[in-house]
């Protein structure tokens, strides 16, 4: 019997929640909402009702492609800098350390709850009480911590053990004072109660009711910026997806004011200017072109910011014909010489497809009392504040690297694809899409192939490329760092494919980030 649908995600419990809803008669949009709520339990560092995200939807009834922006918004009134609860913590990734900024002063207006209810109201089929049920059961019964989640909790333990309230939820049950460990079971009964109440009272509970009042009071007393006005005024934005061609395929992706999709389109345009020799994904010249495009895309982004061209303005700046030609010339010359995010992809048998990427930053270290909800730290995310902290413009949607996408292959399947990984999202997405469309790989091997990522003058190279290709990169780039294995640093791309001709479906989760694909 053909499946009713399938889900690719970063945790088995996340994907199983989607499949449970599909088996109950829900469509892909019911299922992706259910999966997101389950991810808030099973992947709490990466997903929270206190965060935000984006969804690309292919709606079967009219064939439309839609983008739902429910990412975080800057507060309407910044507080005095000396009154802000905003401080750094250092987290240790093993190979490197990084400072993140947390505290109530790092919290932007969350969009997650409003976004999920908006999507469900417009596109869903089942009652919300039924959609939240898998997450409620998981939060009450508990989720067993797997190796990846144990590692993530250990890395961010300075945030998730920052207070008695966060430690009560996220510390090891067996070893208080330490992060939760692999094999331990964690439960979130307060979050279960919150989800059940939200299903009854709807999103007003979060944006105008008791939860909103608790958030606003905490910010007023504790050095945050959010007010009841910020929460009550938050709205989901429906946007036209950014569209571009990739080797004959049509890509629909997250548009401005977020920059991830635009930068992927920019890099694709640069690469299209190169000679069209049919090089395989392991070819040294192909990798040099790819890495150079990444480097120039980084440079172009900073040039746009320096010119005061961000958000929607950046699109006209970057895609100016003369500017593209100049960056393209740099590629041609060099080719022959020289953070807490998760993704869910769902398809159903009717051809509805959802590609949703969400984030809570790393979390701000504050849990709204009695709710089990950790608030975001998006105002403390360096990549979202390239001009410096506390310089954000009031009441604006934050830009993001998140880039959920739909890829239409001519005469072939439609793919839903997205990745976690902060500023590595765009390099992961670019490579997976090129692997599928240019190098003709199926979805699973396209995701599993090794990747590269260029940033801050360093070319990071994942294990798995031939020695000759790595040597060619070493002759071209000054600082090449070869990683000993596959690593979540390089993103986590989860995708599904739907064949319009016969309704066949397939999918794959990225092993770098605990990815699975389950059929309903």
Describe this structure in words.
The protein is α+β, with helices and mostly antiparallel strands and about 525 residues long. It is about 40% helix and about 20% strand. It is built from 18 helices and 22 strands. Strand 15 (about 405-410) and strand 16 form a beta hairpin. It is globular, with a radius of gyration of 22 Å.
Please outline the helices and strands.
Elements: E1 5-9, H1 12-23, H2 28-42, E2 52-59, E3 64-70, E4 87-92, E5 97-102, H3 112-123, H4 128-141, E6 143-144, H5 147-155, H6 157-160, H7 164-170, E7 185-186, H8 189-201, H9 204-207, H10 210-222, H11 228-233, E8 237-239, E9 242-246, E10 249-253, H12 260-272, H13 284-306, H14 312-318, H15 321-335, E11 341-348, E12 353-359, E13 367-368, E14 373-374, E15 405-408, E16 414-420, H16 425-437, H17 443-448, E17 452-455, E18 458-461, H18 467-476, E19 480-482, E20 492-498, E21 505-508, E22 516-519
Parallel strand pairs: 18-19
Antiparallel strand pairs: 1-11, 1-22, 2-3, 2-12, 3-8, 4-5, 6-7, 9-10, 10-15, 11-12, 13-14, 15-16, 16-20, 17-18, 20-21
Q: Ranges with pLDDT <50 over ≥5 residues?
A: 327-338
**Inertia-based shape:** globular
Please report which band the strand proportion falls in: under 5%, 5-15%, 15-25%, 25-35%, 35-45% or over 45%: 15-25%
Main sheet makeup = 7 strands, antiparallel
Give the integer mean of the pLDDT values.
88
Number of strands: 22
The neighbouring-strand order within the major sheet is 8-3-2-12-11-1-22
Percent helix, as a range, is: 25-40%
Number of helices: 18
Which structural class is indicated by helix and strand composition?
alpha+beta
Terminal CA distance? 11 Å
Q: What is the CA-based Rg, rounded?
A: 22 Å
